[in-house]
Structure formats: C-alpha cells, structure tokens
Amino acid sequence: VIVAGVVTGCSGITVSQDYDKETDFSALKTYSWKMDPDAKQEDQPEMSPLVATRVRNAIEKELGARGISLNETAPDFLIDYNLKVESKISSSNVGTTIGFGTGGYGHIGGVVISTAPDIRQYDEGTLFIDFYTADDVRLVWRGISSQVIDKHDKPDRVTKQINLNVQKILEQFPPKDKGAG
Fold this sequence. Notes:
Helix content: 10-25%
Order of helices and strands: HEEHEEEEEEH
Radius of gyration: 23 Å
Structural class: alpha/beta
Strand order of the largest sheet: 1-8-7-4-2-3
Number of strands: 8
Low-confidence stretches: 1-10
Shape: elongated
Number of helices: 3
C-alpha cells in the first residue's frame, strides 16, 4: 500500500527550467501571448485546438493565482508554449526467471530458465512554456515538463494531466536562486 501511494503521488512528471540570470523576474507582472494559440496546429499535430485551449487555460489560471495578469496592450513579457510527443522504447537489463515443476506421481520434473530482456514502447509528452521580453522578444525563462502519456486518454484525464504539468512547471517561476541555472 505504501509503495502504491508513493508511485501514485509522484505522478511521473519530470520538470526543469532554464533562465537568463540577468533578468529581474520580480518586474514581470503582466503578460500577453506571443502567438495566437490557434496557429500552433499547423506546426504541431499534437496541439489540437482542444489541447491548445487546455494549456492556455491552465497557464492563465496558474499565473492569475500568482497575481500575474493578462494585458494584451502593454505586457511586461510574452508567453509561448509548445507540446512535443515522441514515441520511445525502453528496455531493462536481461532478467532471469527460474521455475520448478513436477509431473504426476513425482516421475517427471523440470526447470525453466528465461533470460529475455523486457522491452516496451511508450509515448512521452514534453510541454515547454517560454517567457520572452515584450520589447525585443528575447527568451528569458523556459520551463519544461515530461511525462509518459496515453494519446488516447479521456478528455477529463488529459485536462487533469495538463493542469498538473503546468502547475509543476510554473512552481519553478520565478527562479528562487539567481545564482543557479
């Protein structure tokens, strides 16, 4: 039960960030979208209008909770996001399985030894959220999350996973330590 709780609690999301150490992130209080989210579909087949809306809504909600608001006329910074889905293959080292058995009346017995590697195919989704300066459109912060996904998941589960990924990414913003990066 404890192991199941730990595995479920971790959610399998890996996050990271990179940023410009010279940027004063405390000055970033308003934002606008760098690109019309609906235009993303042409470049990224993973970014359907439904997924784009979910990502945009999750970002707006998380930033709003932090007191950062949308301002399309005079923003402090611009936001863009991208989603990449890659098919991956993982394999474990050769595993050994040993089995013992006996036949009827104890006359026939056997030992089975298997040494085949475990190979599996899965899809990994990576969400990038980028913050750019409003004046010269220079990248100053990037947050990334990666997670094993199911391309055929139900809409409410997709929404939940997007919300969780955006939350985990934006927990890193603003960077806590200006000396790290």
